[in-house]
Specification:
globular, 0% strand
Length: 138
């Protein structure tokens, strides 16, 4: 067995990549499928132009939580979106992010996270989940 520092670094690096892949797979399974539609792209465009979410919902003729989902799904899909602004809108502080992150990494279902933290909405939880999958922080 090679005991050089490079061999140890390679083993640690390989272990981290496997851990990251497993974690990402777990988080993706929690989130479910995402399909970016024209409505979602319109929501992203309006949000990026500074439009308020309530106005975006009105323009798209959807409820406010649906407009939030459009943006969260688009964030996960890799669309250019100011995730920090969206986090502020959803009232996700750094402390909230860390609490939800820790739960999402160990719970097998979103409903279990929601059950543990009923004060958070599903959209707040899904936002943190999307950020974790994209490797973003708030």
């Amino acid at each position: 067995m090679d005991s050089s520092p490079y061999a140890c670094e390679l083993i640690l690096c390989t272990h981290f990549i496997c851990y990251r892949n497993n974690t990402t797979q777990h988080l993706l399974s929690l989130y479910g499928k995402v399909k970016v539609s024209n409505q979602k792209l319109r929501a992203v465009d309006a949000f990026n132009k500074g439009m308020r979410l309530r106005d975006i919902a009105c323009e798209l003729c959807v409820q406010l939580p649906t407009a939030e989902v459009y943006l969260i799904d688009s964030l996960l899909a890799g669309k250019d979106l100011d995730h920090e602004r969206l986090g502020e809108y959803l009232h996700i502080t750094n402390e909230h992010f860390l609490v939800l992150r820790d739960e999402l990494l160990v719970k097998p279902r979103l409903s279990m996270v929601k059950q543990s933290y009923p004060s958070f909405s599903y959209n707040q939880i899904r936002f943190v989940l999307a950020c974790l999958i994209r490797d973003l922080e708030v």
